[in-house]
Write the structure tokens for this entry.
Amino acid sequence: MVGSNIPVAMDADEDLTDDQIEALLQQAEARIRSNTTTFISETKPQRQNRPRRSSTSTIPEPYVTTTGQVAHTDPSRLLAEKDRKLSDGFRKLEDPVAFKQRKLAEKRATAGPNWYNLPRTDVTPELKRDLQLLRMRNVLDPKRHYKKDNSKPQIPEFSQVGTLIEGPTEYYSARLQKRERKRTLVEEVLSAEQDNGRFKHQYNEIQEKKRSGKKGYHKAQMKKRYGRRYNG
């Protein structure tokens, strides 16, 4: 009978019957199946434990919906809000070459942030005279001595002219009055010359030294000595 377990007793001198052979085959097939099932269960990979999605999280709705055979899109979800604001407004388009040249000109217009964005020198006749006067500052005050400058006079590439303002701690006698304030350094020097006449006196001394030993110088000295009596 197929499927029943029949005990089989085998002797060395006894031949097996057909029923016994059938029972042995069924037992061997059962053992093979049991070994195969155990091997598969041992080699089967374990299922990974994936984190479960929280019940509070929601899946975003798709921006494409289908009605019948027609697909519809939600335009409000195609573009981010910040990008939408840029797209709704107006944007000025500039030539990249002209834009680069303009930026380069702005960069060259100042000395840079390391020099407090000092502007380029605006060369005017007044500024030229002031710079020349600074180079000749040795003659302004004979009691002050400055380092001699033998270099070629050059106008600084970046410069700025300002006004000196006295602080509240300075005494009133050390301050300049309104009538003494001038627009340029040259005007201040000329105004001081009208008060003290130092340059005129120095000029006369130089001219007297140049005329020394000449006929005109001799006549002047004799006139000082004899006055009207001198007829030379």
Remarks:
- The first strand starts at residue 64 and ends at 67.
- Confidence is low (pLDDT under 50) at residues 1-13.
- The two ends are 178 Å apart (CA to CA).
- The beta strands are 64-67, 70-73.
